[in-house]
Each structure stands twice: as structure tokens, then as C-alpha cells.
């Protein structure tokens, strides 16, 4: 291992930007990505949100309504991306989806496939209606399936998760998801099981489609490859094994300027459950809040003082974890970026 890469300055993301003369400024605000809860029916090893059945953070009705106001006021924000935790466990989730769809917005839900069967771990409320609800609202479903083999998926997400996930995809297929003629989109997400960069997205997608069809008769539209981010649970696991510096070295050495130019923070704003604004979901989990203004007038932004022009002209906050989005073919909530 190159010991020079163990020093903190080498992990400084701006060093890579300077070497390649890159200035990554916001290009637009097309997506409002809203984390509406940290409650989840699972506690995955790679989860950067640290979501679990024990979390209690929930977006309240007032904040949901303010997000809808922003969507109504800005036609250029075309997409609402709902995430968590398991976003379906927020008590205002259904209304949020219905009202955003009524505004003509594209609605994406980060759905873990198992909440349909597990329901709410704190209240016991059933979520068996979700596949039908998604189809009725024509929601775009994005679901994690770390691998098409049971051992690797269960290793990352918990015992029995693979089988429930297969059953979840089957239910979605029954309502038309993954079938080209319906227009109901089901995209799957691949995360490496360990400190590795994802393989090429196109070849992995072909493997997934073949394996899931031949073994289970299942369909989906696209596969997104996402690099494990060196924060929270995954970072803690790396540090326990002594592999954090090695993983960071791998990310730093794989920096791709083309991938950097396509990072999601250039066209997305992330909203926390409490209404605070961030450049992306990862910055949100590190409490790196959006600030706007100059010199002494700088202030943190929330959904309640949302100023589109100031947000569009902000300076994006970067840190060492940003190497995870710019290594190899790149990584974003929509998969590879280069």
C-alpha cells in the first residue's frame, strides 16, 4: 500500500478537482430527494442512513406540505425522489405520493421489497397494499438487490431478505412492473458486498436479467450500480477490519473526471426529515447542510426558506466520501455516471 495515501490531505476531494481543473457547480434543480424517515424494517450492514426498526425520526405533515408547495411553485423540479429508511413507514407517505402525482411530478420511491411483508416494526401496520398502490399512482420503484444469489444478499441485508425480495419483485411483476408494455418502471440496485468497486453496470444488468428470469421468471427494467460510501456503518466496518485506508486508496486512485462531471449533487437537492437542505443524501447523513450567501450573511437553508436562485448558485460542499461517487464509472442514486 502507498503509505502517502494514508494521510488526511490526500483524501481531500478538492485535491482531485484541482488536479483536473474541475469546477463542479450546480447545473439545475431537477430532483427534490426527500428522506422522510429513518425508520426501517431492516438494518443493512452497508446502510449510510443507519436506518433500523428502532429509529423514530419522521418527517411531519407541515414539512411534507412545504415540500409539495415547492414542487408546485417550480416546474423545473420535475422529480420527487422519496427515500428513508423505508419511506413507506412515514404516516404521510401515501398522501405525499398522491399529491405529487396530482402535480404531474415523476415520483420515485426507494423501496426495499421486504416492507410489503414485514409492515411497520413499531406499530404492526400492514403494508401489503403497496404493490397495488404503486401501480395505481404509476410510481417508479427503485429497489436494492445486492446480488441475484441468496448468500450474498442475505450477508449484506439479513437472513431471509433474499427470498422476501424475490417475492416482492414477483408481486410487482403481477401488477405490471418491469414489463415494457405497461410503462411501470422497476429498477434494481446493486451494491458490492464488501470494499470493492462495482463491475460494469451494463454487463451486471445483463447477468441479473438472465439469472432472475431463468431462475425465478422475474422481470425488471434497469440495474443501477452504486459504490458503497465510506461513511457510517460501512466506514465503521472498514475501520474494525483495518481496511478503511486501503478502501479510500482504491477510491482515490480510481477517480474519474468524467464521472465527477455527472455527480447527482449538480441537479439535485436533498431534504432531511426535519426540513434541512443538503447537496445529497450522503452529505445529509454527515450533517453537511447547504449554506448560501456571502461572507457574514451566510446561513443554513431549510425547506421553509427555500430560495431557488440562491440554491442554484450555491457552492456544493465536498468531502472525502465524494470519492465514492467519482471512482471508476461513477456512482449516484441513478447508478453509473460515466
Report what the structure shows.
The protein is of the alpha/beta class. It has a single domain (3-326), classed as TIM Barrel. The protein is built from 14 helices and ten strands. It has helices at 13-19, 61-73, 93-102, 115-118, 130-137, 150-157, 161-174, 201-216, 232-241, 244-253, 257-261, 281-285, 308-312, 323-326; strands spanning 31-35, 79-83, 106-110, 140-144, 186-190, 222-225, 268-271, 277-278, 291-292, 299-300. The longest helix is centred in the middle third of the chain and has 16 residues, at 201-216. Residues 1-8 have low confidence and may be disordered.
Topology:
Blueprint: H1 13-19, E1 31-35, H2 61-73, E2 79-83, H3 93-102, E3 106-110, H4 115-118, H5 130-137, E4 140-144, H6 150-157, H7 161-174, E5 186-190, H8 201-216, E6 222-225, H9 232-241, H10 244-253, H11 257-261, E7 268-271, E8 277-278, H12 281-285, E9 291-292, E10 299-300, H13 308-312, H14 323-326
Parallel strand pairs: 1-2, 1-7, 2-3, 3-4, 4-5, 5-6
Antiparallel strand pairs: 7-8, 9-10
